C-alpha cells in the first residue's frame, strides 16, 4: 500500500494492531520481539483495549504505541459498540490484528473483513480445553481437573467459531505434580504463549503462512 516503509529486505513492514483486556504480558512479548529482532518486518501501529484500566495500555504508552480504549460499557447497544470497534481497528489500517488476551466477542463484520488476517493466542493445545467458557484460569483448572500430563498454547486464525480457526503454531508444556492453576498458567505463558505468538507474527510478516481450508502450511 502507498506510504508504507519498505524494510531492509524490500518486503513492506506488516502493520500490526494488538487487542488486549488485561495485564498485557503477551503484548509485552510482542513489543520485546520487535525490539530484539525475533519479530522482523513488523510495526506495532496500535493497541486497543475494552478495559481502560488494562495494564496493557500502560505498556503501550511506555513503548510509544498509540493506545485506545473502546469499551462496550460506553455505548447504548452492542451493535453501536461493534461499529465503533471496527472503525477504531480500521483507523490503524492494519495488515494483521492480534488478539492477545482480548476477552470481548469479535463482531462478525470484523471477522469477515480480517479473515486470515486476525490471530488469537489460546492457552491450551486446541482442540482441548477451548471454546465457550474456556479462557484465562478456567482453561488450566479444567486441565488439572482432567489430569492431563501435557498442556500448552495455540496460535490460530480467528473465524466465526470460538477457538476454531486454522491453527498456525502450537507448543507443549509439561504439567508438574504440585501445579496449581496459577502456577500452570504462568508456565504456559512463559514457555509457550510468549514464544509462539511472536514467532507466528514473524512468520506472517515474512509471508510464510499459507491457509489451506481449515489448516495452515508453514513455508520454509
Ligand atoms: C492469559 O490467561 C493468557 O493465557 C491468555 O490471556 C490471558 C491474559 O494474558 N492468552 P495477558 O497477560 O493479558 O497477555
Structural account:
- The protein has 220 residues and is α/β, with parallel strands linked by helices.
- It has a seven-stranded mixed sheet, with helices on one face. Strands 8-9 form a two-stranded antiparallel ribbon.
- The longest helix has 25 residues.
- The relative contact order is 0.15.
- Bound molecules: 5-O-phosphono-beta-D-ribofuranosylamine (GRF).
In brief:
The protein is an alpha/beta fold and 220 residues long. It is built from 6 helices and 9 strands.
Characteristics of this structure?
two-stranded antiparallel ribbon; globular; 220 residues; binds 5-O-phosphono-beta-D-ribofuranosylamine; alpha/beta
Radius of gyration: 17 Å
The profile of the biggest β sheet is: 7 strands, mixed
**Contiguous uncertain segments of 5+ residues:** 1-5
By DSSP, the count of extended strands is 9
- Average pLDDT number: 95
Order of helices and strands: EHEHEHEHEHEEHEE
In terms of topology, how is this protein built?
Blueprint: E1 14-20, H1 25-36, E2 42-49, H2 55-62, E3 67-69, H3 78-91, E4 96-99, H4 108-113, E5 118-122, H5 137-146, E6 150-157, E7 167-174, H6 181-205, E8 209-212, E9 215-218
Parallel strand pairs: 1-2, 1-4, 2-3, 4-5
Antiparallel strand pairs: 5-6, 6-7, 8-9
Bound molecules: 5-O-phosphono-beta-D-ribofuranosylamine.
Residues 20, 22-27, 56, 100-101, 121, 123, 136, 185, 189, 193 line the site of 5-O-phosphono-beta-D-ribofuranosylamine.
Amino acid at each position: 500500500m502507498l506510504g508504507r516503509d519498505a524494510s531492509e529486505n524490500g518486503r513492506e513492514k506488516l502493520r500490526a494492531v494488538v487487542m488486549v483486556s488485561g495485564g498485557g504480558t503477551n503484548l509485552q512479548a510482542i513489543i520485546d520481539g520487535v525490539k530484539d529482532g525475533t519479530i522482523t518486518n513488523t510495526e506495532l501501529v496500535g493497541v486497543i483495549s475494552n478495559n481502560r484500566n488494562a495494564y496493557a495500555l500502560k505498556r503501550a504508552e511506555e513503548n510509544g504505541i498509540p493506545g485506545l480504549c473502546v469499551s462496550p460499557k460506553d455505548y447504548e447497544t452492542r451493535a453501536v459498540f461493534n461499529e465503533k470497534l471496527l472503525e477504531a481497528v480500521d483507523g490503524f489500517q492494519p495488515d494483521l490484528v492480534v488478539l492477545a488476551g482480548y476477552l470481548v466477542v469479535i463482531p462478525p463484520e470484523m471477522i469477515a473483513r480480517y479473515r486470515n488476517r486476525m490471530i488469537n493466542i489460546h492457552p491450551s493445545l486446541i482442540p482441548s480445553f477451548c471454546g465457550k467458557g474456556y479462557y484465562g484460569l478456567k482453561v488450566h483448572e479444567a486441565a488439572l481437573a482432567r489430569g492431563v500430563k501435557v498442556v500448552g498454547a495455540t496460535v490460530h486464525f480467528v473465524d466465526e467459531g470460538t477457538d476454531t480457526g486454522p491453527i498456525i503454531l502450537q507448543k507443549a508444556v509439561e504439567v508438574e505434580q504440585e501445579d496449581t492453576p496459577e502456577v500452570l498458567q504462568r508456565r504456559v505463558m512463559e514457555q509457550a504463549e510468549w514464544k509462539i505468538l511472536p514467532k507466528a507474527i514473524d512468520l506472517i510478516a515474512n509471508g510464510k503462512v499459507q491457509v489451506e481450508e481449515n489448516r495452515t502450511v508453514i513455508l520454509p
